[in-house]
Design a protein that fits this description.
alpha+beta, Ubiquitin-like (UB roll), RNA-binding, single chain, 19 helices, 4 domains, BirA Bifunctional Protein, domain 2, 628 residues, Threonyl-tRNA Synthetase, Chain A, domain 2, 8-stranded mixed β-sheet
Amino acid sequence: MIFPAGAGDEDGMTLLEMAKRDGKAKVAIAARVGGAVVDLARNVPEGAPVQWVVPTDPDGVEIVRHSTAHVMAAAVKELFPNALITIGPAIENGFYYDFDVEEPFTPEDLVRIEDRMREIVSADIPFVREEATKEQARAMFPGEPYKEELLADIPDETVSLYRLGNFLDLCRGPHLPSSGRAGAFKLMSTAGAYWRGDSKNRMLTRIYGVAFPTRKELDEHLRILEEIKKRDHRKIGKELDLFSVTDEIGPGLILWHPKGATVRRVMEDFWREEHAKAGYEHVFSPHIARLDLWRVSGHVDYYRQSMFSPIDIEGQEYQLKPMNCPFHIQIYKSRMRSYRDLPVRYAELGTVYRYEPSGTLHGLLRVRGFTQDDAHLFLRPDQLDDEIFSLLDFTLFVLRAFGFDRYDIYLSTRPEKYAGALAHWELAEAALRKALERKGLPFEVDPGEGVFYGPKIDIKIKDMLGRSWQCSTIQVDFNNPERFDASYIGEDGAAHRAIMIHRALMGSLERFFGVLVEHYAGAFPLWLAPVQADVLPVTERQNDFAREVVARLKAAGFRAEGDYRNEKLGYKVRESQLSKVPYALVVGEREAAQQRVTPRRRGGEQLPPMGVEAFLDMLRGETVNRAK
RNA sequence: GCCGACGUAGCUCAACGGCAGAGCGUCUGAUUUGUAAUCAGAUGGUUGGAGGUUCAACUCCUCUCGUCGGCUCCA
């Protein structure tokens, strides 16, 4: 919401005074003058139009968050005078501030800091903007080495400073007129963070907080956090007995339990089937290979920090594979290729192992051993455009089948450190761009974010809660065909270099499965559900009929289980519901007599009794288009 | 890897220098049950591991392994 305002008509009038005059002082927290957002303490610019910035504007929210960070720093400086201040920006949903302290803050400290913050807000202390030369500013931060370092890096001669009571901070601003304008906030956690994000620097103590213009928005945010917690795939994975990671096996290594493995198998079957239809050939490759292979591929040079140590086998060094590409290239190279053979498309659910620092491991989303739904395509240059175009189609089709139809697409271009010829890069970037445009897909360019061997398209899917997950990637590669001498015989009878595309749609089965669990909160759509129907006999007199129903469902290719325990129906229904099985089939005396079942959907909806065949038809109808 | 917090029964959690517990689960028995928990009994632990302080350690200290929240990186 933007309130237009008249141009200032009095010399020396501040924006705040003008806001008061216009009755906007209660809502405006800053103003947009020209392109810049400025504090209300500034003078009204002559002749320039002014727009009020209110807390609900994107710019306004950022000011609220940034100023809350300053309020926190002021509170910390009062309670912990020895804490050295560094930086404290606004971030998504809130803010943080990094401090250099001898002893990290405890949860109790956070409570004290938050209490003190509320007092500062109640006192409604003005934020006062000052300007100083760098030289003057240096003298204003005695004993604050981080501020000194920041000052040294600022190119401008004049810097701005903000005073909040006794607390002074070097800051670009803008800020709220006063602390009383801060919205609803809450300190969330402390964390270690390197000074300037560099692990060579000293570890600082960061305090994270969330802040919103209103209490209502804060409460809503906290509710979403609760929802995220409820959907956590690690929690649901345990509850539904899908997978585990154990101390005994090792961190970052996944055990797929039968229920999780069933979902994975369905995912894989679907994947294999669709790839075969799309002209891919399936291959298999070993988990280790001679280290030399990885020297040729460039992994030893570019990727060593993510690889496990080589294994000594009879004096030869072997390497646990971090990628599948060199194997597929070898298969391609196993015989002479004609231009007529291309494109050659090799697909493999290839399990790779990468060393990830222990602190980065996270459930299924960040692991040390994972299976890529990998494929490598070998093409002639004239095939590049069409291949990428149809690949985009194929990718979006697969994602849609799993229930993802919202995504962000990124085109990552040539990085500073790149391999190969510039002309190749330009050709590849143009091909990727053209395909996206031809499909009419909106995308963002990530300049310099390509892989060393080529540019790429990344697709980040959005889940039910709107969170983004990087899964699909399509990468053009001129480098590896060069390194491995992968070529084909052209129409002219001469050898030509092939172009390679690396691509993964789900990315990693582990991660994709984890995302699926959170997306559906464990309630998988029918085609993926590990158990699709629970058959629940009301008394043990119906057990025989229930077994027959289970057998018929299984014979028809569906996954069904019977609950023959000596429990009341309510108990069995409850357990079926909690394990998120899509259908519970109640079979009592009436059903058994009429050879029928009474289905109950996962949500509680009861369907009329029907014959087993009718129920099977219903299941078939619901699984034919997969995602639902 | 680095900073911090945390590891107690299969699961969720109590006990926080003085006899290691509850609910759920599991097992046994009774009950034969109609759409989110039938009753009773039993079972279950080198308190992550190693060392130390103490008359006494789940509790305090050191080391180690792991988990979680971040930093960095990425599928």
